[in-house]
Amino acid sequence: MCGRYYVDDDTAREIEKIVQHVEAGLIKEAVRGEVRPSAAAPVIYIKDRLLTAGSMRWGFPRYQKSGLLINARAETVTERPTFRESVLHRRCVIPAKHYYEWNAEREKVSFSREDSPILYMAGIYKMVQGQEKFVVITTQANDSVRPVHDRMPLILDTDELERWVRDDQAVDFILSKTPVRLEHQQEYRQMTLKI
Question: Angle 37-42-48 (CA atoms, 0-180°, nearest 5)?
Fold first, then answer.
């Protein structure tokens, strides 16, 4: 699961390096800091055949319930009616410095790539009430994340970004891949005293 992630100036600079078009005002106005569900955040997608960075809101509305759907499972995203059209035709990439998860003791743990200053999460989007909204695709946690949580975002390598958003033939392969190892950090660690 991915319920929050972090974007900073380094993230914005990395986005500018890989896209062909940046929507007006995105880099200046983009969220910096912790991104929460329902917030607008930078997203990479195809627009007018160009790899574009723009802003979208995080979360699809739930039908017949309140709240938001913020994640879609890689294992079922092509089958679920809520996500099927988006995964077939509207895929995106969500860049982040790191994302957060909470362990069993409710301690906040951040996960980032060991080999890159930024990580790219696979996502999908759709138009909802005149506004583009996205969700993060999650998969089973790999060995580096499993001690904290059983799910993790589907992390893309830099050479997979354009394939994910453009190439319909690559979708099944990417959805079934095991993401790279991540490193984790905790600000505080709960300790118990033995008496």
Answer: 125
Distance separating alpha carbons of residues 114 and 112, to the nearest angstrom: 6
> What does the pLDDT look like over 145-169, one tens digit per residue?
999 999 999 999 999 999 999 999 9
Nearest to 165 by CA among 131, 134, 129, 127: 134
- Greatest CA separation for the chain: 66
131-140 and 119-128: which strand pairing? antiparallel
Answering whether pTM is above 0.85, one says yes
Distance CA 156, CA 162 (A): 10
What is the per-residue burial (b if ≥16 Cβ within 10 Å, else e) of 35-53?
bebebbbbbbbbeeeebbb
What letter represents residue 27's amino acid? I
